[in-house]
Amino acid sequence: MAPVAAVAMLQRAWTVSYGELVAGLLLLTPVHVLMVLLLLGAGVVMLWRARRRRDVYLVDYGCFLGEPHHRITFAMAMEHAHLMTNSLIDNESASFMLRLYERSGIGEETSVPDSIRYIPPERGIEASREEGELVIFSAVDKALARTALNPEDIDALIVACSFTTLTPVFADAIVNRYKLRADVQSVNLSGMGCSGALICIGLAKGLLQVAPPGKRVLVVTTEILSSMFYAGTKREMLVPNVLFRMGAAAMIMSNSPERARFRLGPVERTLTAARDRDYRCAFQEEDDEGVTGINLSKDLPVVAANALKRNIIALAPAVLPASELLRVAFSFLRHRFQGERAEERCYRPAFHKVFQHFCIHPGGRRVLDEVQRGLGLSDGDMEASHMTLHRFGNMASSSLLYELAYIEAKGRMRKGDRVCMISFSPGIDCSSVVWECVKPAADPDNGPWAGCIHRYPVKLPRILKRT
What is the dihedral of CA 251, 255, 257, 259, to 10 degrees? Predict the structure, then answer.
């Protein structure tokens, strides 16, 4: 009988008239109405919170700092180049690298691994593994120490190393060294170039926004010099030998604001690899003698500038105030209708009013100068980038964290300050990331600039054009 009674009740419910429903509602007391509204409101809030993407934070970070015996001065580099002329490269190539070194803006305290000091340099697997473990473990140790976290607190691991991929990969080496949990999510990226750090940040953001609250991701970025040294004579492939130096950085990101120091803002990535010229402007290949290296095309500065322009156009709506966007729009329309004869150029947004700090990838003085000119930045805006290039060289994707450390070591970071990071890599790939400071460093001198920050900024020699 129970099923029959249930069916009868349902039929009765479906036959309730509109008038009966209104009469029933009128019989409800204010208390009942309030309870219904509260339950409905709570349900809407719970549904909104479940579907809302979580904020992502940078808890803290750590950077590798080379020991005194890792230091490579200009005199040592010159002696090394001349010694290699008997076995690897010719005198013309050695002279070219030395001239480039003089104009590079790189100082006397950068670091290289022991394998590069050998004649000939050691480029084997064991040398790469030793260098990788040295710089990576040092950076991770510092990040864990600064956050007071234990390895078992890490829920996911993302590692980026462009040129070198070993088996087991560096992500597995970190899991083994720190005995991370068996359920840790692990990703090892290769071939991402100097944008690797920002690409990793974007990936970590995607993971944390959909994860339960309180999750943490360890991000590690580096480049291994031991395997990327070019021992040939092609000029376009000798440039990385001069600019790249040893380094690594580790970041701990979370979707919880607890102990966080920066809140992650917009992340924008622009990839122009569909264009053949862009795709081949930084190309790993073998030269005529079969020696592997990275061929840097003369078109690279122009291609990178175009990628930067597209990236900024995509980023601008998310960071610029409405007044700046309107000025850009009106300027564009005026320029468009006046045609190519217009003397006035399109209005350039005042990014220095939106961001208090800039971290531009130190790919070289020419790259930094082009970015400064394109964004209309001041020498002060570019200080962290130039000084990082001088003190540490181009450390690939990890360089941006050294620049952030420079700003903090100088005591310039304030609560609410916004930081814009921009990097480039083969592809061409241009990536940008925005951070907002939640809590300045309690000890800003505790970083890779400890012991030398008082000597910076230094005056860089002018680059004289050769006729």
Answer: -30
